[in-house]
# Entry
Amino acid sequence: MSTQDGVTVETDTARLLRRQLKAADQALARLARGEDEALHDFRVAVRRVRSRLKWHPAKTKDIRELSRNLRKLTRVSDEARNAEAWLALLDVLAKEAARQEAEGVAQVRARLMQRLRISLDDAREAIEHRYPPLRADLHALVHGRQKLALPGNETAEFRVRAEALWHRLDESLAGLWPDLDEHTLHRTRLLSKRLRYWLESDQTLFAPDQSDTVVTELKALQTRLGDWRDAQKFGAWMSDTAAATCGAHAREMVLAAMREDVRGFAILQAHETLPGLVYLATRLSAHYSELRIQLEPHLAVGALAGLRKRMEGLLASDDVAAAADPAMQYQSSESDEVRV
# Structure
């Protein structure tokens, strides 16, 4: 596998930045009009930029600072993103709600809508003030006012960094099933997203059609892992809401209902101030079971072996020194690895 004709790490990064800056501008215009999915699209564009810069060969002090500031920018909209995801999950969980249950679900929905409105306003205000200078810095990179490349075999170094990313994901995947440890799952989801972003956008090492199968697998895996994490975070929000409404003891009651503990469910029913939470807690328990069934085909031994074979074949190359140890070439702290 050789470098694609006429494409270097520097020119390819500039191409990606131009594309994502345009996508971010379009998403901001839609966000100002209050359109659905606009905030999500802006976050994706910024994450794609940051993902590329994060492990770029020319990661100078200025680029590292820019990457950190882009991460801070996306974090201000985390709460709004979560509220949107939980509202979508609420629709799934409440499909079969009876009249009495539906009234409680409506109250939960009202709480989430209020949370979404407040967090969206906060996110818009923060983006309006923080993004313009970051956008200017990114345009400076695109137009070559800051150096994007290093002398030497930059493509070889870029490939080694890509291999390192895959090896960390492979290791994380191997320890995920069947326990689905929360930290490992979160790390795996972010690493798979980061690798997918690179495969979808990079034209330095191979043509896009070479990676289509792996990209499809990673996207499906990322989606399932994201669904699981959204359910976890929604469950935590419900237990916090119960505690805020009825006292600390109600948190354990909601958690018991999510475990389908009959005693916890019966106690919750006696609290009229928790309408909807009882029903949603038990429905969320069933939802977890459905998500496990959906996850297993992606995490079973055979599926992982197939992904590993395709990914390693994609990265195989004779023009990079075989002695290079990807795990040593690109090191970062545990916290840094998962902050994509």
